[in-house]
Amino acid sequence: MKIAFFSTQSYDREYFDACNKKHEITYFETALNTDTALLAKGCSAICVFVNDKVTPSVLAVLSENGIKLIALRCAGFNNVDLKTAAELGIKVVRVPAYSPHAVAEHAVAMILTLNRKTHKAYNRVREGNFSLERLTGFDLYGKTVGVIGTGQIGGVFCKIMQGFGCNIVAFDKYPNETLKQTGVVYDTLDNVLMHADIVSLHCPLTTETKHLIRKETLALMKKGAMLINTGRGALVDTKSVIHALKTGNLGYLGIDVYEQEENVFFRNLSESIIQDEVLLRLLSFPNVLITSHQGFFTDEALTQIAKTTFENIEAFENHVSLVNEVKA
Ligand code: NAI
Asked: What is the pLDDT of residue 160?
């Protein structure tokens, strides 16, 4: 099948080429939008990533140019207008689980870095500064960790944090009975936010979860608590979070995702003047850690993403049931 890949980086080409047995792939660095959608002309499928906006107008151009399948090489599908895709007869498939460990472990890495300040210690020691001033952390042992969304990633995250000796309180619309048996206690969202020393977000972005963390919910959190978001940027109202950081009510923030990330993430802007004032304000806090959507970025996850994406494409090609189809 002829497939147009959008928003590709060198590592996409490396992992997909290694796994590709028969497809004719064209890699585009550009993101998918109404102007670039035409690049897919002549292909039957496109492959997109988290920040490709598959809007109704983009879908119209894709449909006019013969696209029948959209293969997401990610788990989240909040960036695709599924209703319009269905109306146009375009199927949408995704990679629901490639390595929940990759993202859960990254969330833990963010907690450890923010807490024990290893990023600062690394720089200090390299410059001959062996002082411990202001590097104080806290024991994770015995702390309460609030987990919002206990699916694949949230579930693995709960187990890792239990390994540190943390108490886990969780909120999910569909509590997981197996996790309950391991000691995870489910409660309301408000109670989880009120009792947790660390809150980690692992639910999908939906109309219901947009700005789940905002002024009102931040006000419920313990003073000095840590917030980790490896889910999707818009789970958090960034301006409210900045206010909570300024007042000291929020003690730490670790984000791997950001509301306006499509304008900056995955690119080297080190020689550019960054225009995003909100991001720049976030970067100015000593207790904020930002990574550029790299939670998924392990060798195992990239291999599995390529493998499952081709399986999805081949199932479509062979008219076999699409186990990873997403529908409105
Ligand atoms: P999943 O579908 O296995 O789990 C999501 C959980 O959230 C489910 O248990 C579901 O019941 C729960 N949920 C849904 N709506 C909710 C609500 N309103 N309130 C509370 N809980 C709710 O998904 P998985 O694989 O664990 O991924 C979670 C999210 O992580 C994805 O949707 C994606 O946005 C994000 N992600 C981030 C990556 C990164 O690189 N930073 C990579 C992969 C996923």
From this structure: 98
